[in-house]
Each structure stands twice: as structure tokens, then as C-alpha cells.
Amino acid sequence: MTLKNRISLLVSLLFTILFGLASTLIFVLYSNFRKDEFRDRLEIKALSNIKLLVNVKEIDNQLLKMIDQNSINKLYDEKTLVFDSNYKLIYSSIDDAKIKWSIDDLKYLKKHKTFFKKQGNYEVYGVFYDTKDRDFYALISATDNFGQRRLLFLRYTLIVSYILFTCICWIITSITVKKIMSPLNTFHQKIKNINENNLDTRVESKSNKDEIDLIANEFNFMMDRIEISYQRQKEFTAHASHELRTPLSRITSQIENVIADTNTSIERKSFLRNILSDVNQLTELINSLLILSKIDNKKHENNEVHRMDEILFSAIENLNKSYPEFLILFEIEESDNMDTALEIQGNKNLLEIAISNVLKNACVYSDNKQAKVIISTQDDTLIISISNTGDTLNENEQKILFQPFMRGENSKGTSGFGLGLRIVQRILTLHKATITYIITDINTNLFQLFFHF
Q1: CB atoms within 10 A of CB 98
Q2: Radius of gyration of the chain (CA)
Q3: Among 23, 67, 232, 298, whose CB has the most other CB atoms within 10 angstroms?
């Protein structure tokens, strides 16, 4: 999980939990408040009935029932019972509701003065009233419909609010975190695209001086040091390779002159040819290192458009001059956008070197000195497929195929230094193209070059 998603999840969960706890607390507090408020109303009503019985001598049960029935403070489904000190019922309201009671309840009232409990949908309040002459016990029950409706409304309001605001919080948090973390996404994309050809890439930093800007600045400083070191290394390789070419050229010329001399013996000529072969391999290695050191964006930027079929034909022609025994079969698939696909923007010389290296590699490592080339298109991509028959690479060799100086088991007895495919990959990367290697059949190797147009 990405840091952005973790932050969004953490903030959203924190809000969800806190809002849930707050909603629960509000509901519980209001529920207790409703209960206390309803209990107070029951207490007032019970005490008022007892006081009327005790203090107003002219009142009787029927009159009290009439007063109770027409009272503005009458409760829903109210039932009132009043007992004397002998636990004898002396007053009962005319309501049809029933109160479940026992002598133990009245004894409990005498000891504890009051109680409040729930019986089904009814809430019952009991109170003990002590006068100088005698004692009274009152039980009153009723249903708090209004309070229950308000409590139910509050419950649904809190549930809907919880769901609604939780969803809003998740959306807002996700958008906000995404916006805040957008510089890191840009940072990641730039780092992801950095290679040896664009070490001059730098990350833009703002003046906020937050943690992201500090990382960006340190990254830019690091890239400055890496670019300087890399340029020095490339300059050293280029200078060393260039300086080595001159003495090697002289050695080659001198050996060729000695071989061409009629006075040189046959044995001596054979010995010199072996030396000349080693010198030529060394020259090839130095030329490859020189090419690698010179490949970068600044030195080889080229906005000219070239046709890949012409570059391919030129590479085949030059390869046949050096290796006349090589046979290259060519095929181009018909496509409506083929003419457009063949036009590639880039450096013609470098593209020809890349194609030549792949063709040479295919012929050298084939079992019949042959390679087959097919040009095709797929979506917005030009595909150049170069295949041969011969020994294939194992899985470990395929993973490091494009690394410098990599040579597989099938290269035994074949001269080379393992730099050809590395050069190809560097050139294609410079042109925003790619190369892949797959085994399509038994003893069948396939290289594919992908150019986007």
C-alpha cells in the first residue's frame, strides 16, 4: 500500500472512529436525559396526586380521578396507584393500563424512598410519601411516546449523519492527500525515468521548505554529484579509447606491412596473422567503448526523420561487405499506416549501428549464418523482429542479456566482448525505443525492436 493510501486510510479511520464515538456518546447522554426528564414528570405527577389526597379534605377519589383525567400534565397511557401505610390501595386512576406490583415493591419504597424501572413499553416510578399522621406509597406508570420519538429521530439522524459524513470524509481526505502528495508523484515519475542518458534531470522544488522540498533539494544535490562523476568517467573512457586507437592503428599497419613483405616466411606470417586478429579484436573493443562513452542526449540530439527500412537496408549492405557469408532474409508486412510507422525521429548513424549489431549478433550465433528480419506494426508501434536458429539462452542469461560484457554459453568459440547488445540498448533508450529477447521455439531466438510513432 502506498504512503498516500495509508495516510488517507488512517485519517479516514480516525475520523470514522471519533465520529462514531461522539455519536454514541450523544445518543447515550440524550437517552439518559430523556429518562431523567420523564422520571421527574412522573414524580411530580405522583406527588401532586398524593398531596391532593392528603391536604385537601373535601376531595374524594371520584373528584381526584376527574381532576387527574383533565389535567394538562396528563401522560400517555398513564396509570396511578396510591397505597396507605397498610399497603391498602386507596386510589387508582381510571386508565385501563396495568401496573405490576407487589408488597415487596412497597417495602422497597419505604426503605429507599423511590425507584424507577421499566415494564415492557411502560416506565414505572415509585415514591414513598411520609406525613405526620400516616404514610403513602404511590406507583405511576406511563409511556413517553414523545420522548421515544425524539430519541428514535436522534438515532436515525446520527446513523445517517455518520454514514454521510464518513463517506464525505473519505472522499475529501482522498482528494486532499492526493493533492498534497502530488509533488511526490512527480518526484517519483522523474526518478523512475532517470537513466545514464538524462542525468541532467532535476526535481523542481518550491519555496515552501517543507519535507518534500528538502528531499527534492537533497536529491538535486546528489544528482549534481552523480552527473559530474559520470561525465568524468565518460570523458576518461573517451580520451583513453581515442588515445589507444592511434598506437593500435600503427601496430596494425606495421603487422600488415610485414605480412605483405615477400621476404617474410610462411610460419612468421601465420604467427603475425594471429597477432593481427587479436589487435583487431582489441580495436573493436576500444571502438565499442568509445561509442558507449559518446552516447548521451546532449551530443546526439537529432530531430531529423529517417525511414527505418532505408536504415535497415544500409545496415544489411554494410554487414555484407564485412561478412559476405552472412545471409539476411527480409520481409515487410502490409499495413495501412506502414509508411508513417517507418518514419522515426532520431540519429541515423546510431540507429544504423544498433540495427547492425543486432543483425551481426543474429548471424554470428546462428547455426547457418542466417537471420530473418520482419517489419510489422501493432497499434502505434513499429516492430522490427530479427530471428535466427541456434543455441538459446537459459533463464539466468536472459536476465542479464543487456549487461556489459555479458556472454552466454552459446558464445564459446565465437570472438566478441559482450558489448554489442549493450550498445543497442543504450541507443534505443536514447530514441525512446526498447528491445526484447524471447525464445519462440526450440533453438529459435527472436529479438524485437519496438519504436513508438
Answers
A1: 11
A2: 48
A3: 23
Q: Does pTM top 0.85 for this prediction? A: no
Q: Which residues contact 263 (CB under 8 A, 6 or more apart)?
A: none
pLDDT in tens, 170-222: 888 888 888 877 777 777 777 887 776 677 778 777 766 677 788 888 888 88
Residue 152 CA, chain-centre distance (Å), reads 42
Half-sphere exposure at residue 161, Cβ-oriented, CA atoms within 13 angstroms: 15
Residue type, 87: Y
Q: Which burial class, exposed, middle or buried, applies to 128 when counting CB atoms under 10 A from its CB (0-12, 13-18, 19+)? A: buried
- DSSP code string of 392-451: PP-HHHHHTTTSTT---GGGTT----S-HHHHHHHHHHHTT-EEEEEEEETTEEEEEEEE
Give per-residue pLDDT as tens, 274-315: 888 778 777 777 776 677 666 654 455 566 888 999 999 988
Cell of 142: 406511563
Residue 83 — φ and ψ, nearest 5°? -120, 150
Residues whose CB falls within 8 Å of the CB of residue 104, separated by 6 or more in sequence, listed in order: none
**Cβ-based neighbours of 423, under 8 Å, separated by 6 or more:** 288, 291, 292, 295, 353, 354, 357
